[in-house]
Amino acid sequence: MKKIILLVLSFSIAFALTIPKNSKYDKRINHINFNSQNVTLIKSAVGYVTMLQFALDERSVNVVTGFSDGWEIVTRENYVFIKAKSYPVKQQEQELVDANGKKIKLSSFVHPSSEPQNWKTNLIITTNKRIYSFDLELVNEQEHFNYQVNFKYPLEEKERMDREKLQLEIAQAQAAAREQKQKEEEKLAKELERKTIPRNYDFMMHINENSESIAPNFAYDDGVFTYLGFDNTKAMPSVFLYDEANGEVIANTHIEKYAEYEVIVIHQIANQILLRSGNRLVGIKNNSYGVNPLDRTYTTKSKKVIRTLKNGN
C-alpha cells in the first residue's frame, strides 16, 4: 500500500512541472505554451547560458530567484538570460601576512560544479503583461539542458484572431450596409429624378409690364407636380400660390435641370400661380385644374416613393 501511495505522490509532483518541448531541428532549442497556472522547469549546465524569449511587446519588470548568489539573471528587452555562477564564502578571520609584512585577505568561492544539487531553486519573473514561475535545476552538460526556451501564447493568439475576425465581419457588414444604402439612395434618386410624362399643358399666363424676364417658357403638370421652365435668358422668380380664401401663400418648390431649361417644380397641382421678383409680376392660371385627376393623390413624382412630413414640417 505504501508503494502505491509513493508512486501517486511522485507522479503528482512530476505532473505539476511543465517541461518545454524540443524543437524538431535541435533538442536544445525548446518551446512552451504559456500558462499562468503552470511552473516551468528550466535545466541549465555549468559554463552555459540559457535564454528565455517572451512576446515581442513584453518587458521584464521584476526578476527574483531563491538563490541569487548562485544564479546570474540578465534581462534585455523581451529576453532573459540565466547562468549558474560561483559564489564567495566567508572565511574565518586569520592573521596572515606576506613577505613584506602586509596582511593578506583570503577569499574562496564555491563553484556550481562541486554541489550542483544545491543550485536547485525557483525563479519568478513579472513582466508588463504576465507572471512567469520557474524551477531552476543545474545538470551535467552531458544531460539534456535548455539553450533557448521560446514562449508561445496560443490562447491569446486565438483571442486576437477571433477579435480580428469579428472586426473584419463587422467592417464587412458595415460596408455591405453602406453599399446597400447607397444603392437604395441611388434608386430613390433615380426615381425622383426621372422625367415625368406631362398630363396637362392647358395653362394661361398674364405678364405684367416689364415682367417678361420672369415669364416661364412653358408650364405643365403631370398630375402630381406643376412644372415651370425657364431658359438662360430668364430670371428665377419667387413662386406663390393664390386662392381667394387664403390669398398668396409661398409655394413648396425645388429646381431641376431639363436640357437647357431650369425648371421650377411646384410640389402640387396648382390652380393659380403668382411669380414675383421685385416689381415684376406674372400670373399663371391652370385652365384644366381638376379636369383630369389621377386615380389617387401622389406626394412625389414617383408612384413608388411617398413623401412624409418630419416633425410636422
From TrEMBL:
Residues 1-16 form the signal peptide. InterPro entries: Conjugal_tfr_TrbG/VirB9/CagX (IPR010258), VirB9/CagX/TrbG_C (IPR033645), VirB9/CagX/TrbG_C_sf (IPR038161). It comes from the Bacteria. Residues 156-195 form a coiled coil. Keywords: Coiled coil, Signal. Pfam families: CagX. Gene3D superfamilies: 2.60.40.2500. Belongs to the TrbG/VirB9 family. This is Type IV secretion system, translocation pore protein VirB9. The lineage of its organism: Bacteria, Pseudomonadati, Campylobacterota, Epsilonproteobacteria, Campylobacterales.
